[in-house]
Structures are given as C-alpha cells and as structure tokens.
Write a structure and sequence with these properties.
This protein has 65 residues and is mainly alpha-helical. It contains 3 helices and 2 strands. Strand 1, helix 2 and strand 2 form a beta-alpha-beta unit. The chain is globular, with a radius of gyration of 12 Å.
Length: 65
C-alpha cells in the first residue's frame, strides 16, 4: 500500500490500522521522539540530495519489504 499523507493525523491512523513501514526524508531520523518512532518501525530514510547509488539502494530496500 502506498499513500501520501495530508497531515500528521494520517500518519497516526496508518500506524493504528496497518502497522506500516514508512519512507521518510533523512532529517526525520533526527527529530526528537518522532525519529525514535520512525527508527523503531524500521522506516526507510531517503536523502533527497543523495547520490544515484544511494537512491537505488533505497529503492531496493523498499522492494525488499
């Protein structure tokens, strides 16, 4: 399942209903509390300014899930 969220409540509802893993920008990992939760649910962190190889690796991580 893939969906884009409109607000933070969408994220909470997805967590309650589906226990998903998220793809998030890399900086979220450093947010207080939110970063800890994102890491705990095994989110994939994407560096938007990363190299082509890093983006390919993220794509492979997503496919593996």
């Amino acid at each position: 399942m893939i969906f884009n969220h409109v607000c933070w409540i969408d994220i909470l509802l997805a967590l309650l209903c589906f226990f998903p893993s998220f793809v998030s920008k890399k900086s979220v990992k450093n947010y207080p509390f939110i970063g800890m939760i994102a890491t705990a649910i095994d989110s994939v962190f994407l560096d938007r300014a990363g190299t082509k190889e890093e983006k390919i690796a993220v794509g492979q991580a997503i496919e593996a899930r």
